[in-house]
Design goal:
CATH superfamily of the largest domain: FAD/NAD(P)-binding domain
Helix content: 25-40%
Distance between the termini: 12 Å
CATH class of the largest domain: Alpha Beta
Structural class: alpha/beta
CATH architecture of the largest domain: 3-Layer(bba) Sandwich
Shape: elongated
Largest sheet: 7 strands, mixed
Bound molecules: flavin-adenine dinucleotide
Number of strands: 19
């Protein structure tokens, strides 16, 4: 294909989803790809991401370089050869102290700081294919004289750009989502249906060891109960501990929208080890935040515009699979766009429709699953907390659903859908 006919793709948002896709697409000579990222530079906000097996598969399918960069930048939570496990334990009620799940037992379990990962992926993209400080403000589509549809992007700094195809990975408060669904659509804004407030603190590990059971500075506890679940995550090779209490049903102030202070007295009937962690968190809750997610969008794509990653399906953090879903999306779009060889409406729209058809059900199931995790953690999923064996079965099944997924098979299915459409139109594709 001549330089003139390269398909012009704009990716809005250079986060996990946008950059991963850009690594794949900038290596396809028939595509002319540009990423527009709102922030001037990536900033470390202290959070660590753990990428599960489905994320690793998705990265590898886009490019083994993505996966390698993750391993180069990830730090072990503890020592390299230290075995670590996430233990889910009932901290309240009749079965207090009972373990209901043991997840991810492995040596050298890793997390990566988002900013470190993005910097490493940025190095895999030609510098002239990304612009920082470009916050998308609005989108418009026009039809030119030769009936060719064009997507126009207007940025907050007054500049603009055009593309044959816009892929929006602009996060939970997505402009692309608002454009696709319409700002008044009930699923357009994110919502905090269950009133989740995450009280969180960061403590040097040495100091934490003096305040809580030292076991929870080298393993990951999730201690469950009806007024909040308690969690610790070792970071940076056991030098820092992130500790939190996630409360469902917080009552936010009508005046300033703030959640009430974390009150350790409310946890008097929790296990002693949970109470210790609550007391430690209550001393400094400056790293707290309010969680939200998306109700199901009826579609992820229309014509030449699609949304992916958190823009399409932001989830509560309790299933730990949001970034993995963003990477599954990117991997699917990468597989499809490899086969799009014309900037016609038919081809671009049908590739994006195939992405929507294959990815929407699974990614929305993960949004629902994360909500369900939240309810199970808060003893609000019926009487499941009265039946530890049922809880154990739930965690086992759910881990398999997210992590053991056949990402390659899903991408092949999407390409089949796209090819079938093309054949129906009488086109011959590569
Ligand atoms: P983001 O990473 O949010 O990136 C969106 C990008 O778009 C940003 O760079 C932003 O600056 C840019 N942008 C926004 N608006 C505009 C605009 N108008 N114009 C241009 N650019 C714009 N997931 C996991 O798989 N494992 C975990 O362990 C995990 N832990 C988590 C812990 C916490 C505390 C939280 C909150 C989430 C966690 N997640 C985890 C979820 C994960 O972080 C997200 O699902 C993931 O970052 C989504 O990637 P994204 O690229 O879609 O969105």
């Amino acid at each position: 294909m001549s330089e003139k006919k390269r398909i012009k793709i704009a990716i809005v948002g250079g986060g996990i989803a946008g950059l991963a896709l850009a690594v794949g697409l900038t290596r396809k000579p028939h595509l002319d790809v540009h990423v527009y990222e709102a922030v001037p530079a990536y900033k470390d906000v202290g959070a660590g991401l753990a990428l599960h097996l489905n994320a690793l598969k998705a990265m590898t399918l886009i490019s083994p370089d993505l996966r390698q960069a993750y391993f180069d930048k990830a730090l072990t939570m503890g020592d390299e050869d230290q075995e670590m496990v996430t233990e889910v334990i009932l901290a309240h009620g009749r079965f207090q102290g009972q373990r209901v799940a043991e997840l991810g037992r492995a040596k050298g379990r890793k997390t990566v700081a988002r900013a470190d990962l993005l910097d490493a992926w940025l190095a895999l993209i030609p510098a002239d294919r990304i612009s920082f400080g470009k916050r998308l403000a609005s989108i418009e589509e026009t039809v030119s004289g030769d009936k060719h549809r064009v997507v126009h992007l207007a940025f907050q700094d007054g500049t603009s750009a055009t593309a044959d195809c816009l892929l929006g990975a602009d996060g939970i408060h997505s402009v692309t989502r608002n454009y696709l669904l319409g700002p008044d659509h009930p699923a357009a804004p994110s919502k905090n249906h269950d009133g989740w407030q995450i009280y969180r603190t960061m403590v040097p590990t040495e100091e934490a060891r003096r305040q809580i059971n030292p076991k929870w500075t080298t393993n990951v506890p999730i201690l469950l109960g009806p007024r909040g679940h308690v969690n610790c995550i070792p970071l940076n090779k056991n030098t820092r501990l992130s500790a939190g209490v996630a409360v469902r049903g917080a009552v936010f102030s009508a005046v300033d929208g703030k959640a009430p202070p974390l009150d350790p007295a409310l946890y008097a009937d929790y296990s002693e080890e949970a109470r210790e962690i609550v007391r430690m968190v209550a001393k400094d809750t400056s790293a707290s935040w309010t969680a939200a997610d998306h109700d199901h969008a009826p579609f992820y794509a229309r014509g030449r515009v699609a949304m992916f990653g958190d823009a399409a399906h932001a989830a509560l953090p309790f299933a730990g699979n949001g970034a993995a879903q963003a990477l599954e999306d990117a991997s699917c779009l990468d597989a499809l766009l490899k086969h799009v060889d014309s900037d016609s409406d038919d081809q671009i729209a049908s590739a994006l429709a195939a992405y929507d058809r294959v990815r929407r059900p699974r990614s929305q199931a993960v949004v629902d699953l994360a909500r369900k995790f939240g309810r199970v953690y808060a003893y609000a999923e019926g009487d499941m907390h009265e039946d530890p064996a049922r809880m154990m079965a739930f965690f086992g099944e759910m881990a398999a659903f997210t992590n053991d997924f056949d990402v390659k098979g899903q991408n092949e299915e999407a390409v089949d859908v796209f090819m079938f459409d093309a054949v129906s139109r009488g086109e011959k594709l590569n």
